[in-house]
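All the exercises in this workshop are built on plain-text protein records. A learned vocabulary of local backbone shapes supplies the integers on the structure line. Once this layout is familiar, the rest of the handout is easier to follow. An example says more than a description, so a record of this kind follows:
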Amino acid sequence: LQLHHGGRYRCGGWVSSGWSPWVKSEPVTVTVHGVPLSGVSLSAQPPGGQVALGDRLVLSCAVAAGSGPLSFSWHRGGAAAPLGTGPRLELRHLGDNDSGHYQCRVSDGDSAAESPTLNVTVL
């Protein structure tokens, strides 16, 4: 079932096998509700968010429940400007200034949810 399946429906048919007029039911309205966003999680490769200077870090964002389409954005230190979009963020050649608290934000157009923060440390 998709959100666009909502609308007014009716059925119709013949009442008997002989000649009879086409009979239609009264219409019913079907409303399809979206599933609220929940269970936004963040994972890192390498695990734990500790990365050697010059290495790369891949962050992944997952949603346990929610009806789409979903949009993703990545943020560091609570900054409003996103570092990237999509469910995956790859940071290459990490430097000292890349350490910090990273978070994924997910929106379904009506509501938004955030992952817990991950403390990334460049060693």
About this structure: The two ends are 48 Å apart (CA to CA). The chain has a mean pLDDT of 89. The domain at 38-122 is CATH 2.60.40.10 (Immunoglobulin-like).
